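Below is one record:
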Amino acid sequence: MAVRPLAEGPVHGPLQGPAALRRPPGLGGRSPKVLVSALALCWLLPLMLGALHLQVLTLVVALLAIGSLVRVGGGLVDRLMVSGLLLSGALMAFGLVASVWPWRLDPLPAGGVLLSVIALAGWYGDRRPRFALRLRWSDGIIAGTGLVVWHFVHRGVTGRLGDGMMMVGDRFSHFAIFESIGRIGGYLFLHQAAGQVSTIGNAAGVYPQGSHFLFAWVDVFVRSSTVPLSTPQSLSRYFTYVLLAFVLLCVCVVWATRWVAGPRLAGWRTGAVCAVSACLVLAEPLPELLREGFDSEIVGLAFVAVSVALLLRPAMGQTEYALVAAAGLVTVAYSYNIYVVFVALPIAAGLLLFRRRQRGHRVALLVWLAAAGAVALLPSAISVFSHFDVGQQSVANGMVIHFDRATVIGLGLAVILSSLVSLSRPTATQVLVLVAAVGTVAVLGVFAAWQIHRSGTVSYYFEKLALAAFVVFLTSLGSVGGLLRPLARRGRSAPLPRRLQEPLLAVGVGAAALSLFAGFQWGIPSVGRTSAQWRLSSLVSWSTERQGNQLAEGTRTFMARDMARSTAPVITLYRGSGSLNWQTAYLAQALLRRNGMMTEFGALCKVDMGSSYISGPRYRQSLEQLRLLVHGLPSRPTILVGNKRLSEQIDHDLNGGGVNTAKVLFAPLIHYPPAAAAPPK
């Protein structure tokens, strides 16, 4: 089978041969004076920005500097995506050093080192800074997707520090990791003793922390300070980063679909591919990630989309290819480690497919990828050697996102069949897409067989992998666009000129995609006047729901009134439900930076009292569980009780006879009225 080499994009880099090593005009080659001047500027700039409290601009400069040195893509959006991936990978890998050096996350030395490394790389590669400023009309679809998603997610939070935020316990687990990283100054798996105080269970040692670390370090640059904020302030900032990350996930998926399609897929065909991708992003299942608090998965999938796209269509030189592969491994493994297999598949296929192209520097590439793989797998290796039972965890149960399996199956079949159709004269991208798609199906099949063998059914982590497969297939959907026929070049007798046919077709395909894949009905009433499918989607529901919820009210009550008069450990008895009492206590410990105590709170799930006065056997049973809990805690707890008479009774029974067992406070639940719904149009 003959494979046509990729013709899209220039080939650059110091590993490409003498032509790539020619001295750019005007830079004087590898002049020591140029290097010294650049390094001096790399440290002077962070100093100046720090004095102005604008250290976040250091990251902006680093992003633009990387984009000016790499030679990937001919447009501005392409260059920003690649440089964003490389910068994120550099920050996560550099975090291993920053976690143990004396300055920790201080933006001044970190910014100086980061810019210096970029300057050294540009000087060593003899690269002339050159930034691609060209825009494509399909960039409007990518940017429009981001604006639409931001409209809905921001509208859903306005006026209610997010019931959507407070109602999700998993989000507070992620917040605890984020806040602990910022306060301790590094990865928690390198500071497990300190991290276990404020995170639950063994999260400090085993949970992937790349997204939390990235958020924490970016927050330090944004604030130009490492001084910890109050937990309510930190919580609000963390939630903002999560919302932005979700918007970027949607943008990255649409861009990745276009990148795989390539520049030869122009005109209405590009619009068709991008429109279908955007509509599938706006529909299910990705918005459910935001609702259910799967924050690290949001970041991990964004890096999966960008990394897989660049590896499926590696229209770049060997230097950029090596950097992209390394950044993909690190960002995905650190954000959500089980997804790294989807990045490894196209890398392994590329090593086989491009073995002739890599001749002469293959050993260097293999050594580089091995080093990158070691850095990427380091946190996972630490967790395994920390007595973490991987086999038991692989069949664990948990909250899953229920989405139509037919969507994944249909996308996978479309990608595989389109690649098979093109096998008579395939491009390298089509071969890589086929290998990645078949490999993804194989990964799902093997893991499903493993789970069925161990537990009799598929469960939590299979659904996680299925969601990643959805993103991989959606990214690969760009290859299907090659089957679409371009418009024929007609003469003057054509009813419409070509420049009008292209946009009309693109708009028409976009409208059809909104109806087919996003359930948009364009104002046409549904049968029986029921709600349209679009109105029932997770993204729209997020922005229109205004009802409160019990967990949100308990958390708001604690933040507004009881946090100031409490010390950890805190036992919250706002409600008459043991499960709600446990969840609110969990969130309260997170706000007090003492989530490590929650391992002792199992008995609280059986304390079914708080909002109203109870007596008799029910009270005695709950009191016995409460007494068991109090005696098992390392220090005297604060107990917040929602009913005044009940609080007095508990205080008497626990602290009677001069025994000061617990601090019992009357804490009636504050009922927040739901925000007014948006007026109908």
Observations:
- Confidence is low (pLDDT under 50) at residues 1-28, 159-164, 675-681.
- Residues 22-124 form one domain.
- The CA atoms of residues 57 and 138 lie 28 Å apart.
